[in-house]
């Protein structure tokens, strides 16, 4: 039996405060209902800054985003997994999540705009940080992503999430949103291993992140990678589903770890 899985981390959220907050907001709105405030903006002064040209951002980033397919065994059957990666070097080093490649017996990568499945191998992993570095074999002159400064990301900044969402054919999926919060910490469960992972310093975004997006870039309006899409929230309460709550590992958390990933093997303590 062969099963197709698009790996993701799932976060179970409680929403018990929703009714309380909603009631408070409703009360304040009723109390101030007779007061009207009109704010005016000149034609050349938008309320929020938007990317000047989303197509230009995509032209810069998409060529360095790859789809990753894995094959492994689970519960006596063959499991084919799908995820995303970012090319860091012209010779084909690719950054992705550890949970994308964990347990895989073989890896293949598809470059943007192409259909060939290229063989790849794992260079190094850090399971504690959910990071992995893989190598596309026999490549040179590949486009690369530009790593930005996630410490400069502010709540309200516009971002794009790019990746192999749901392993849909025809190229990566692009979603738009904002930075919803920074420096988040969470405990998430791997859809592959079922193990609990504790992650911190995460960027929260309302840009849609789905299974298969894991390992893909979260980029700012300059086309710089500020995070790696990693987890999506899933409510445990049927009447209060989580929406537009996704998380990315901040790129400034990843940068200092790239050197030891390149040395190979699994990082001790991971």
Mean pLDDT: 81
Gyration radius over CA: 20 Å
What count of domains describes the coordinates?
2
For this structure, the CATH topology of the largest domain is Thrombin, subunit H
Our count of helices gives: 5
Report the principal-axis shape: globular
Strand elements, count: 16
The CATH architecture of the largest domain can be given as Beta Barrel
What pattern of helices and strands is seen along the backbone? EEHHEEEHEEEEEEEEEEHHE
Major beta-sheet overview: 8 strands, mixed
CATH superfamily of the largest domain: Trypsin-like serine proteases
In helices, the fraction of residues equals: 10-25%
Beta strand %: 35-45%
How is the quaternary structure best described?
single chain
Distance between the termini: 31 Å
**CATH secondary-structure class of the largest domain:** Mainly Beta
Which secondary-structure class do the elements indicate?
mainly beta
Q: Please mark out the parts with pLDDT under 50 across 5 or more consecutive residues, or reply none.
A: 1-7, 12-49
């Amino acid at each position: 039996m062969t099963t197709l899985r698009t790996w993701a981390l799932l976060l179970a959220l409680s929403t018990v405060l929703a009714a309380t907050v909603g009631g408070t907001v409703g009360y304040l709105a009723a109390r101030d209902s007779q007061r009207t405030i009109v704010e005016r903006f000149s034609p050349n002064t938008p309320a929020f800054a938007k990317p000047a040209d989303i197509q230009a951002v995509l032209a810069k980033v998409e060529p360095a985003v790859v789809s990753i397919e894995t094959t492994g065994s689970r519960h006596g059957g063959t499991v084919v997994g799908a995820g995303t990666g970012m090319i860091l070097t012209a010779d084909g080093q690719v950054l992705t999540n550890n949970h994308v490649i964990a347990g895989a017996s073989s890896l293949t990568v598809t470059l943007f705009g192409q259909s060939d499945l290229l063989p790849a191998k794992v260079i190094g992993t850090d399971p504690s940080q959910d990071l992995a570095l893989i190598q596309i074999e026999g490549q040179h002159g590949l486009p690369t992503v530009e790593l930005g400064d996630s410490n400069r990301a502010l709540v309200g900044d516009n971002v794009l999430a790019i990746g192999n969402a749901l392993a849909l054919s025809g190229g990566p999926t692009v979603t738009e949103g904002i930075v919803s919060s920074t420096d988040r910490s969470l405990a998430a469960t791997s859809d592959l291993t079922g193990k609990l992972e504790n992650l911190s310093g995460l960027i929260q975004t309302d840009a849609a992140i789905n299974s298969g997006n894991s390992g893909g870039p979260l980029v700012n309006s300059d086309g710089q990678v500020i995070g790696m899409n990693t987890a999506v929230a899933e409510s445990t309460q049927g009447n209060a589903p989580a929406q537009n709550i996704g998380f990315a590992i901040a790129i400034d958390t990843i940068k200092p770890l790239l050197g030891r990933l390149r040395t190979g093997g699994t990082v001790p303590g991971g």
